[in-house]
Specification:
This is Amidinotransferase. The protein is of the alpha/beta class and 317 residues long. It has helices at residues 45-65, 107-110, 115-124, 145-148, 168-178, 219-231, 241-245, 266-271, 274-281, 301-304, and strands at residues 15-21, 69-75, 91-94, 98-101, 129-132, 149-152, 157-161, 181-185, 202-204, 208-211, 235-238, 252-256, 259-265, 285-289, 306-308.
């Protein structure tokens, strides 16, 4: 990596929120449109829950050892929140001290929103405002955070795949408040169905972007997205739909002292080609995390990490 690439980027947060589940299970409610979920493995639910708890514990420790600040919250399961391990969907943070809280498509996921996370952010970071969009749920308007949108914080673009988890009216309202340009496109998986979350097929780092261009319905729109990313100075790394199925797109770039990391699952990292890894390595170090049980729920490392793009409070602040 060059010295320029070692500089911290607003695209790559230095801190994350994680939630450690005590009663993890694959959510049958979300399986209707999340085709990345897997059927139960035949293990008893207690064994699956214990494995997921251990995977989050190990992932949090690995991130801390790599220099990332991790705020780890517990979900003991009283509220029946099987997808709580994926906090990036219900809130996001933004440079300048802004927080958004999102309307969730499935009722079980609405119970994941928790005041203690927001209070921690207000206590430890400089927060100017919190805009809560969850009141849109009774009107059937949903926008599932950084699952539904993949942000280019540098160019102020919110890349969004159309789905029932990304309503255009909710997106427009968010984009106006947070000063993002929405760039919307249609996608399809191997069975021809829309991909449920944008962050399954797209990851934007500081100097590169992983994008499943073959997952776009309109090749012309895929070309426009590629051009827009290249205009922002990034090298586009096309990934295949087979790699999407291995969660290669579900990654997040993070800042650590002196360098940047690309956090992704071991399964995702194994699916990348040597050429793809070489491009990433020019500006970020691969940090594979072992989360096979978590991936049964249809999400991977990106979904597990809610990035904190806020300035920490100084001592006595």
């Amino acid at each position: 990596m060059t010295s320029a690439h070692r500089l911290r980027s607003i695209q790559a947060p230095p801190a994350v929120v994680m939630v450690r589940p005590h009663r993890f299970e694959s959510n049958p409610e979300t399986a209707q449109d999340n085709r990345f979920q897997s059927l139960p493995t035949g293990q008893p639910p207690s064994a699956i829950a214990q494995a997921a708890h251990a995977e989050v514990t190990a992932a949090a420790e690995r991130l801390r050892q790599a220099g990332v600040t991790v705020h780890l919250f517990e979900d003991t399961g009283e509220l029946n929140t099987p997808d709580s391990v994926f906090p990036n969907n219900w809130f996001s943070t933004h440079p300048g001290g802004h927080i958004a809280i999102y309307p969730m498509y499935n009722p079980s996921r609405r119970r994941e929103r928790r005041a203690d996370v927001i209070e921690m952010l207000k206590r430890d970071y400089r927060v100017q405002d919190v805009i809560d969009y969850s009141g849109l749920e009774p009107d059937g308007l949903f926008l599932e955070g950084t699952g539904a949108m993949v942000f280019d914080h540098l160019a102020r673009v919110a890349y969004t795949a159309r789905s029932n988890r990304a309503d255009p009216l909710a997106l427009e309202r968010f984009a106006t408040h947070f000063n993002f340009e929405p760039m919307v496109f249609d996608t399809r998986d191997s069975s021809g169905q829309p991909i449920y979350h944008t962050n399954v097929l797209m990851c934007i780092g500081t100097a590169f972007a992983l994008v499943a261009l073959d997952g776009f319905v309109d090749p012309a729109r895929a070309a426009q997205v590629r051009t827009r990313l290249e205009e922002s100075g990034r090298q586009v790394i096309p990934i295949s739909m087979a790699q999407v199925a291995e969660f290669a797109g579900n990654a997040i770039e993070l800042s650590a002292p002196g360098h940047r990391l690309l956090a992704l699952s071991e399964r995702a990292a194994a699916s990348l080609t040597p050429a793809q890894k070489a491009v990433i390595d020019e500006s970020a170090e691969l940090l594979p995390l072992r989360v096979p049980t978590i991936e049964l729920a249809g999400g991977s490392v990106r979904c597990m990490l809610a990035g904190i793009h806020l300035s920490p409070r100084g001592v006595g602040a």
